[in-house]
Specification:
The structure holds 2 protein chains of 2 kinds. Chain A is of the alpha/beta class. Chain A has 11 helices and 13 strands. Chain B is built from 13 helices and no strands. The chains are: A alpha/beta, B mainly alpha. At the A-B interface, strand 5 and helix 3 of A face helix 1 and helix 6 of B.
Chain lengths: 285, 291
């Protein structure tokens, strides 16, 4: 597995304020779709901005074998990103946006961008200021998805989009964009929508990584069991790391406890990434 | 990929999409200067004729009428372009941070050096040359339309020749080259204000020299900085006024005194300051976290 992103002791402090990222280590391999998941202010965006060379940081960081601070120009030929939605300038015409990206980016495929836009209400003659926020995001996604980049970084790419558009975006991303030579690093609030397509998840809380695992290992490591109230003391005795009430019953989350031990207590399953995230955050709190 | 879609042309076109006044304002003024004279009324009476070749009109005006018109058009358009260019430079690295579009521009493989230099070259080279071309086009159209519109002006219009216009174009290119070198530090300074400003880049540009002049005058009662600024911004005010617009070699305009300018340290110090400021601007756009 070739490392696309390699972070060692990545740290960032804003002024004398809080430590936004605190000595983070992680590796993103080629061909992975990694979800970076955390609450607002947990440090997700700072990690992403460091990876993209948009902000100074401490520690070691290598992206596609390059230093994002000193080799940013070369890096941007192979990396594309959406660091925030709705940042396309109001005066930009859709047609001009396509012309511009085509002019400056050797790996831009205009037909692909136009095909994506054809299925939306965005017309070539529109200016960005005439578009709704959702349409601006669609334009931005169309531009970025038409770039054949080795690494695609998306920070809350579907913020403000309705469900249909979000679904279509992720379908396009997985079916048309993704192949073994590409890697995606994505953050989102809507974990439930993308958890089936992630190959890895990294949970970040208060600038530290609290979980970093391939999604296919979650089932072997984590289990949830839904128990009735009379089973609750027995279940708690097995040291769940978190629990939450569910319609008069309780869901308990366990790490590294064999499922057969839990089966006597109630309905055993694999927690979803969203549940796991909430459970982890409750544990940290 | 043709010329208009090539990389560096695209960077410049991007600027012109965003700052439409850069070409609109001079174009509108040029159009007005061509069109408005068409509404004049020279039918003062039967047999009335305007003749700039008449004996009472000074010989110089007769001979150099074409140059006078061309230089006047270029001067008006030059002033307009100058004003819009100053506004442009102040906005050039500020607007992208204000509307956060810098996050989009930085996601593309265009280096900060390329971005900053494309903006500087647009203001110092492309806009002046476009303005000159526009002035010459206006000159040709004005000459042609006046000829068609006013029969009684035709004798006078013979001096509004292509050759006379071209002499002035050559002179104006010469002047522009001097202006380019002399005002490069001003342009770089405006970009520095633009990249530093949190709001109102004009205030960031004007306030520091103003404060320095005030402090100097209060503490020492002198005006060295003010005089330096005046000399830098208005270099012709140092000249002997009598030497301006004197006729030399069949041209109404004095070209810049190159031998003198290049042997004096001023222009070189100015250029060195410009290079340092542009370097700082590039570093700031590159390494500062603007988001």
């Amino acid at each position: 597995m070739t490392a696309i992103i390699e972070a060692r002791g990545l740290s960032k402090r804003y002024g004398r304020g809080k430590q936004a990222v605190d000595g983070v280590n992680f590796t993103v391999g080629a061909g992975r779709i990694v979800g970076l998941i955390g609450r607002n202010g947990a440090g997700k965006t700072t990690v992403i901005k460091s990876v993209l060379g948009l902000t100074p940081y401490e520690g070691e960081l290598s992206v596609l074998g390059r230093d994002p601070t000193t080799e940013r120009g070369a890096l941007m030929r192979e990396v594309s990103f959406i660091a925030d939605v709705a940042v396309l300038p109001k005066w930009l015409q859709v047609k001009d946006a396509l012309d511009y990206v085509q002019g400056v980016h050797p790996a831009f495929n205009r037909e692909r961008a136009e095909a994506f836009l054809a299925a939306t209400d965005v017309k070539l003659k529109h200016k960005v200021k005439q578009l709704s926020k959702g349409m601006v995001t669609q334009l931005h996604l169309a531009l970025v998805m038409a770039i054949r980049a080795r690494l695609l970084v998306l920070d809350e790419p579907t913020l403000g989009l309705d469900l249909l558009v979000r679904r279509r975006f992720y379908d396009t991303l997985v079916n048309d964009y993704m192949d073994e030579e590409r890697t995606i690093l994505v953050t989102t609030h809507q974990v439930e929508e993308i958890e089936h397509l992630l190959t890895d998840v990294i949970f970040i809380e208060q600038g530290r990584i609290v979980l970093d695992t391939p999604t296919d290992q979650i089932a072997g490591r984590y289990a949830q069991v839904i128990v009735t109230n009379d089973q609750l003391p027995a279940a708690r005795a097995m040291k769940p790391f978190s629990e939450r009430p569910l319609f008069g019953r309780t869901v308990l989350f366990f790490e590294n406890v064999p499922p057969e031990q839990l089966a006597t207590l109630g309905e055993v399953g694999t927690p979803s990434i969203a549940d796991l995230f909430v459970a982890r955050m409750q544990e940290a709190a | 990929m043709n010329f208009w879609n090539s990389r560096y042309v695209m960077l410049v076109r991007r600027e012109l999409w965003e700052h439409r006044t850069l070409w609109l304002a001079p174009a509108v003024v040029a159009a007005l200067m061509v069109i408005l004279p068409m509404f004049g009324n020279f039918r003062a009476g039967p047999g009335f004729q305007i003749n700039v070749n008449a004996p009472e009109v000074p010989t110089a005006v007769q001979q150099y009428f074409g140059q006078i018109v061309m230089v006047s058009l270029a001067t008006v358009l030059g002033v307009v372009s100058c004003i819009v260019s100053v506004i442009y430079l102040l906005d050039s690295l500020f607007a992208e941070r204000k509307d956060r579009s810098i996050l989009f521009w930085k996601s593309l493989p265009v280096t900060d050096t390329e971005t900053v230099l494309s903006k500087l070259v647009l203001a110092l080279v492309i806009i002046p040359l476009m303005t000159l071309l526009l002035a010459f086009a206006a000159y040709c159209m004005l000459a042609g339309l006046l000829y068609l519109r006013y029969e009684q002006l035709r004798p006078a219009l013979e001096n509004l020749s292509l050759a006379q216009g071209l002499i002035s174009v050559g002179q104006l290119v010469n002047t522009w080259l001097f202006v380019l070198l002399w005002y490069a530090p001003v342009a770089a300074y405006l970009m520095l204000a633009s990249v530093l400003a949190r709001r109102a880049p004009l205030v960031y540009a004007v306030l520091p020299p103003f404060v320095v002049v005030m402090i100097e005058s209060m503490l020492f009662g002198t005006d060295h900085v003010a005089r330096l600024l005046r000399r830098w911004l208005l270099p012709t005010s140092q000249r002997d006024p009598a030497s301006d617009f004197r006729l030399s070699d069949g041209r109404i305009m004095d070209g810049p005194d190159w031998a003198n300018a290049l042997s004096q340290p001023d222009i070189w110090l100015g250029l060195a300051a410009a290079v340092v400021m542009v370097y700082i601007v590039i570093r700031l756009r590159r390494y500062r976290d603007d988001t």
